[in-house]
Amino acid sequence: MSMTFHMIGGAPDPVAPFSHAVEADGWVFVTGQMPFSATSLDSPYPQGIEAQTHQVMHNLGVVLAGCGLSLGDVACVRVYLTAFETDYDAMNRIYASYFPAQRRPARTCVGVTGLAKGALIEIDMVARRPGP
Can you name the residues that pair with 22 across neighbouring β-strands? Predict the structure, then answer.
């Protein structure tokens, strides 16, 4: 099995020592993205769960595009929320707008006690390269 380690220009800088994505046998594992509004780790987060969800989805789209993929290639998603009880419904409304109802990836959503740099949300994804 060969692996490719992707660092994507235009995606936010990693907050820790990791690649934006790692590819193995056509599967692309996208590292959880934070709601940075630019590539610098010093760029501010937007305010509120709705704006942060949109920004995370944008950042994930940048990483996927850098790998030659799109949200349509995503098979599985994990969502992490620091304020699960209060932000879950609003996050779901925004999240659902990114996938057609008949083609939504498998998903897990969990509440966590904290995320890097005080984010309200982090999302990671697993995508699959289309076959020949």
Answer: 5, 29
State the CATH number of the domain containing residue 94.
3.30.1330.40
> pLDDT tens digits for 102-117?
999 999 999 999 999 9
- For residue 51, what are the domain limits? 3-128
Length of the chain: 132
Task: Look at the chain and report how many structural domains it folds into.
Answer: 1
Q: The pTM is what?
A: 0.94
- pLDDT < 70: residue spans in the chain: 132
CA distance 103 to 120: 26
Q: By C-alpha distance, which of 15, 13, 62 is closest to 40?
A: 13
Rg, Å, the chain Cα set: 14
